[in-house]
Amino acid sequence: MTELEAGHAQGLAPVRGGSVLQRYRDVLIALIAFAVLASLPLLTGSKALLDFVIRCSAYGLFATSLNLLVGYTGLTSFGHGMFFGLGAYSFGLIMQKLGVPIPVAFVATLAITALIAAVIGAICVRLKEIYFAFVTLAFQMLIHSTILSWASFTGGDQGLRGGIPRPVFLGIDLANHVHLYIASCALLILGLLAMRQIAQSPFGYTLRMIRDNAARASFLGIDVWRAKLTVFVLAALFAAMGGMVMALFVSGAYPEFAYWTISGEGIFINMLGGVSTFLGPMVGTVLLLLLNDTVTRFTEYHGIVLGVVILFFALGLRKGLLDFVAEWFSQRRDAGEGR
Amino acid sequence: MDLDALAGCLSSSACLVTQTTSGLIIGMLLFLVAVGLTLIFGVLKVVNFSHGAFYMFGAYFAMTAYQLTGSFALAMLAGAAGTAILGLIFERVFMSRVYGADVLMQLLVCYAFVLIFDDVVRLIWGPEFKSMGMPSAFQVMPLFIAGGVVPPYYLLLIGVALVAAVVLGIGLSRSRIGKVIRAAAQNPGMVSALGINTGLIYGGVFALGGMLAGLAGALAAPVRSLTPGMGFSVLIESFIVTVIGGMGSILGALIGALLLGLIRSFGSLGFPLFTEGLMYLFMVIVLVSKPTGLFGKEAA
């Protein structure tokens, strides 16, 4: 399940020597990916496809950030969705009530999220395993209840309605569908690149060590609590970015964004795509959204279809799709080398 | 927030009795669901995320049996026995394949069945709200206790749950089967080496847990409306109960359920919109001060 057990797809050795090369490679891949995504509107006039990519950006940022906790640190958060909701609501409220430029609201939202995540995280990361999961879930539902009951501020169960104003900045007009699409792709790629850097940094390897053996990490002089808190806050920031993309896309925010099912979907996406490979959650996001879109078109009983697909992954593959593929490749390579 | 309403209720004995009984029946139903959850966790070390579905099936089985036979006793039996069989099949065919696997894999299997079960209910019974209706035997004058109104059915419900609690508590601590179950929870390898079929025990405990949730659903059917997905909120609340009480502790489940029932019933007066929030706030407070819950044992 863990990266170390998952095979030799990504050895541990080249941390220092290979890191610079790897960084250039990652940036190159990111640039190519962005170029491909950004050229999509030129190739196709399909608004549905662009919408799909925007939704993938929102959920992908959220799911990948959750994997920083689940896959890399071994912290199974059932409440990560609270930061998705917080991002959407903070951004929407700041834009509606204060009317500041979008980049200011963006930074302010990240600051608010960091502050709240630091407080909640300081309490949560002391707990282990299932208790960590439950206390994060409780915090998430507390925030959800607050959103519902503070109706004068948040709109209650109606959600944040009336649209989010999108004043033009630096020539970027987010009310324009193509502009919004490009901006979402840019945020996604930048976010993924940043998370990749975190995962490959010495800090990222510290997280893996905490996951595999927290006691040993502690003996080696690592402040486990502080490392966990740091990654908790970092993951919250990227989840909030996903929430902001979502808020811009639907031009509003709804209590469901902060409901625990968002966290459940996040975990599910991770399991679907794989937690041992960096892009696993992205693959899972695309899979789940595709599944949701196509299955709902054919049957109203999409729960049964989705459930059977999940069972196939859980009982059949026993791991996410990308993990399965990566393992298959590494086994084949090993066989080829005669090991 | 409406603190005046809460203060007014606390100073009136009639309101106090009414709210306390409604808190008690919420608590007792939650206890029946939560004790199954805590039992399954205690023995199988599985967090049964699909437990709410058994509550839902219990209610639907009871309603169907009642409509077919008109007998309240048969309805309860159908709810309890039907979910017990369902639990046994579910455990043997699916859950037993992911023992020892990652916790997330177990959760995923359960999550899949939450989706599937909800749709199966929609397929069989339809998506709309249903109601079983109060059996005629209980359509009698309510009791008046200190000015408060208490329907007789509530007393039956509280009584059944209390009996279940006592039988479970004594059964687990005194009977031979109870001892074997507790041994299997401690050291399944040793129990298995002694020639006892642990698979049978696991299946049995899962069936028992499913039966208790089904019984709760059947008992709730006359007083709640039935809808696919009705197990969801019950599941979350019974999770709070088990976590507050301490995972694996039966006494904890009882105390946690009663506390939560009372918080809900009195909270709905003082904080109508924030009733749910109160429960989560309570859970956060308990977990932060005692991570293993009120009656949970410290993890090794």
Describe this structure in words.
The complex is a heterodimer of chains A (339) and B (300). By secondary structure, chain A is mainly alpha-helical. Chain A has a domain at 47-258. Chain A has 14 helices and no strands. The longest helix of chain A has 27 residues, at 47-73. Chain B is mostly helical and 300 residues long. Chain B has one domain: ABC transporter involved in vitamin B12 uptake, BtuC, CATH 1.10.3470. Chain B has helices at residues 3-10, 13-44, 51-69, 72-93, 103-125, 152-174, 176-186, 188-193, 198-220, 230-245, 250-270, 275-289, and strands spanning 143-145, 148-150. In chain B, strands 1-2 form a two-stranded antiparallel ribbon. Chain B: This is Branched-chain amino acid ABC transporter permease. Chain B: The chain crosses the membrane at residues 24-44, 49-66, 72-91, 103-125, 153-173, 194-219, 239-262, 269-288. Chain B: It comes from Bradyrhizobium ottawaense. Chain B: It is found in: Cell membrane.
In short:
The complex is a heterodimer of chains A (339) and B (300). Chain A has 339 residues and is mostly helical.
